[in-house]
Amino acid sequence: MFQGETAITIDDKGRLTIPTAYREQVAGECANRLVLTYNPFESGCLWLFPYAAWELVRDQVNALSKVVKAHRDMQMKLVGAAAVVEPDSASRVLLPASQRATTGIEKKAVLLGMGDKFELWSEQEHLKKIRQTIGEGEITQAMAELRL
C-alpha cells in the first residue's frame, strides 16, 4: 500500500527518482514494473500503477462498450496513453514527454501514495487542488458516515 506526499524534482531528461521509502516495495511487489497513464478525472495529474494492478484496471476499461463516447475517452486516456516504465539502477523512471507536457509536470512535482497506485501531480495543480476545501454541499452520504 502506498501512502504519503513527497515533493519530487524531475531532472532535465524527464526522469523522476522513486522515493527511498517506496523502492523496496516497487522492486518486490511491483517487480520493478510500473505503468504511467493519464488521470482521466483530474488535469495536471498522472497515475502510476504497479503492473499487476494495472492489468486489472486495463481489462476493466477495455471491457467497456466502444459505442459510448465517455467509454472511448476513458480508454484513450488510460489504455491508449499507458506507458510501461521500469526504474533504472538509480531508481529513476522516464516520464514520456507528451504526458509531461499535457499535464504541465515540469521540474517540480508531487508524488502521492494513494493506496493501490501513485498520483503524480504538477506542483501548481497540486497546490490548487490541496487548497480547495470540501464544501458542505459536496459531502456525500458515505463521507458523512466517516468517523474523522
Automatic annotation (TrEMBL):
Subcellular location(s) of the protein: Cytoplasm, Nucleoid
Molecular function, one GO term: transcription cis-regulatory region binding
GO-annotated biological processes: negative regulation of DNA-templated transcription initiation
SUPFAM superfamilies: AbrB/MazE/MraZ-like
Xref: InterPro entries: MraZ (IPR003444), MraZ_C (IPR035644), MraZ_dom (IPR020603), MraZ_N (IPR035642), MraZ_sf (IPR038619), SpoVT-AbrB_dom (IPR007159), SpoVT-AbrB_sf (IPR037914)
Highest taxon of the lineage: Bacteria
Alphabetical list of CDD domains matching this protein: MraZ_C, MraZ_N
UniProt domain SpoVT-AbrB: residue ranges: 5-53, 82-125
Primary localization class, coarse: cytoplasm
Keywords of this entry: Cytoplasm, DNA-binding, Repeat, Transcription, Transcription regulation
One Pfam family this sequence matches: MraZ
Calcium is among the record's keywords: no
Entry GO terms, CC: cytoplasm; nucleoid
Entry keyword annotation includes Lyase: no
NCBIfam families from the UniProt entry: division/cell wall cluster transcriptional repressor MraZ (TIGR00242)
PANTHER family listed in its UniProt record: TRANSCRIPTIONAL REGULATOR MRAZ
Subunit structure of this chain's protein: Forms oligomers.
Family: Belongs to the MraZ family.
Protein name per Swiss-Prot or TrEMBL: Transcriptional regulator MraZ
Upper lineage: Bacteria, Pseudomonadati, Pseudomonadota, Gammaproteobacteria, Lysobacterales
Gene name per UniProt: mraZ
